[in-house]
Amino acid sequence: MSVSRRSFLKSMALTSVVGLAIPxxxxxxxxxxxxxxxxxxxxxxxxxxxxxxxxxxxxTHLPTLRVSRDLDLLLALEYHMRDEKxxxxxxxxxxxxxxxxxxxxxxxxxQVPWLGEHSVYDGLSRHQLFVASKAESCAHEFSLHxxxxxxxxxxxxxxxxxxxxxxxxxxxxxxxxWAVNLGRLLPSLGSIPPLPAAKAVPxxxxxxxxxxxxxxxx
Amino acid sequence: xxxxxxxxxxxxxxxxxxxxxxxxFRALLGDDNVLVNTSQLTPYNKIMMSVxxxxxxxxxALTATSVEQVQGVVKICNEHKIPIWTISTGRNFxxxxxxxxxxxxxxxxxxxxxxxxxxxxxxxxxLVEPGVTYGQLYDYIEENNLPLMLSFSAPSAIAGPLGNTMxxxxxxxxxxxxxxxxxxxxxxLANGDIYRTGMGGVKGSNTWQxxxxxxxxxxxxxxxxxxxxxxxxxxxxxxxKPPVFKPFEIIFDNEKDIVEIVEILRPLRIAGIxxxxxxxxxxxxEAGSGNVRRSAYTTEPGHTPDSVIAQIQKDTGMGAWxxxxxxxxxxxxxDVNWKIVTDAFKKLGKGRIVTEEEAGDTQPFKYRAQLxxxxxxxxEFGLYxxxxxxxSMWFAPVSEARGSECEKQAQLAKRILHKHGLDYVAExxxxxxxxxxxxxxxxxxxxxxxxxRADACFNELLDEFEKEGYAxxxxxxxxxxxxxxxxxxxxxDVEHAIKRALDPNNILxxxxxxxxxxxxxxx
Lengths: 218, 523
What we know:
The structure holds two protein chains of two kinds. Chain A is 36% helix and 25% strand. Chain A is of the alpha/beta class. In chain A, α1 packs across α4 (71-83), α3 (48-57) crosses α7 and α4 (71-83) runs parallel beside α5 (95-108). The radius of gyration of chain A is 17 Å and the shape is globular. In chain B, β8 (182-189) and β9 (194-196) form a beta hairpin. In chain B, α7 crosses α13 and α13 packs antiparallel against α14 (448-467). Chain B is globular. At the A-B interface, α1, α4, α5, β4 and β5 of A face α2 and α4 of B.
């Protein structure tokens, strides 16, 4: 079977899955020609509602796709990253899913201007960002709005330089505002509007664990 | 157009020389196949090793679509002394991923050379290009209803046979020792010559994928885990799909049972009663790949306490050791071998046997059965969520298939990992006489202190195992120079003599397996 035949079948699989999972079907997205089409990738974990809440605060209503380690879905996603122009994927997922998605972005020839690794345990949060120049201001905004508490944020510009720690205040983080902020910032990567000052977290319970954020541009 | 990456250069190459080479690469490959935009390079640099990403950052990535283009790339590299790091699908997770061994090397990505050149269902072999994935082959076999079965490592569909075999990876079927099943390579040498191994040099030969040895010295192995050439085609044998496939699991509750498990298993493997690469996974490997997360039980730093592990065993029914194997053949063959296997383990009086019918769709049984029958899946990536944080390095010492040796290695590894606050997450992959003892050193890369501990831990594992006469069969790119030293100076001298003869400009992946004319000559 040729690659194109396989890709077509995988694409059909995704369209059908996406049709069930997102408010706007991918086919409808494809007809939007005047701006980059965007899709939020989430994993159903505890950060998902915060991340999506953040995007809604900014008035961004992204179609949402839950991803996991499902092979057919991921291969279909790879097909769309390879085949479609101006597709932007904005995600916050677990490590395993992100590892797969980022690597499939590589094989699809897509660009990754933002890659963030986030760890939150016992009130201590760590954020390691690998960003392209177009995402620098976004990274700056993100670090500025981290709570001035037990938060460590290092930014590696394009992973190319040794890490440069830009914020090392200490204290206790009492919310998961960082996940909301990611939802606010990443959809508008490259044209950053100022963040609303008011903090708004749907449930003020802190989340814990490890998370990976990313922006993929096909 | 995005700003080019100006911050990373290959070792010893000036910006001016680099720019000249880039101009030539663009002329040869086209602009779209020369990646210098830093957004394009980031996914090539998502490493899982215990160093900063900067240490393995590429200066550029090239994608070639033909053997002629690969020859052209090599020519330009020789002219400008540009070192290249070749990847096929780049899915060497746990061993360095797609990133180069040394900062600044230009990645040559062969993902676009992805033609399945031949699948012969009668002689049961395939000939493929580097970018072909197991998923592609699986689809081809299914689409054409061919009576063949694949063997692959856990990343299965998204990895490829050529890359996995060149790194001497293993799978879980009776054809699980992949290099043993390799038959015929085409290699672009550093001088641009195209060398075909085995019968491949004979004009009109139809036995390139049939007979490995050819005539005179057999050099295939020399190109694996090495940097003497760029493999652009590879043949390998495919297993006929058996009429009956019977996967099973045997669950053992106690850690010390490993001694008896191996003693019973070895004769069954050597005699071929159990024909496939059996896996014996420990509780934490089993839990991680079975979607259990450490954070569900504890968020305390350090290694996971025995009490927590006992609770996981109790909650999930998983064993301290979990053996996965399968029988293949006609119903009569499988019935006979099933009796031999079950009799052997019943005599031991330990272990709960679980069949496919009993397990149903439960994980991790389901994905293990799929891997043993050549059905791709990505379930094992769940290991990355056990602790989380993106750090994963596979420590893979070889062990005799002797119970006392496996126990000794397991205890030694566990002691060192616990000393550094990390978990013993391991499996033994059982060949007839050896074991690949694969330990996933999982840690949080966002935590600089934990990353330093993981690095120290890996070094100590290498050191302490070496004192006992053990060494790894494969390692991630951070530790390749260190591991090369374990195998002795004569071997290294020979390897560098070959390197000087075949690649005097040291352009092909210098540093791969510790082979680097620049650094070795100075020692």
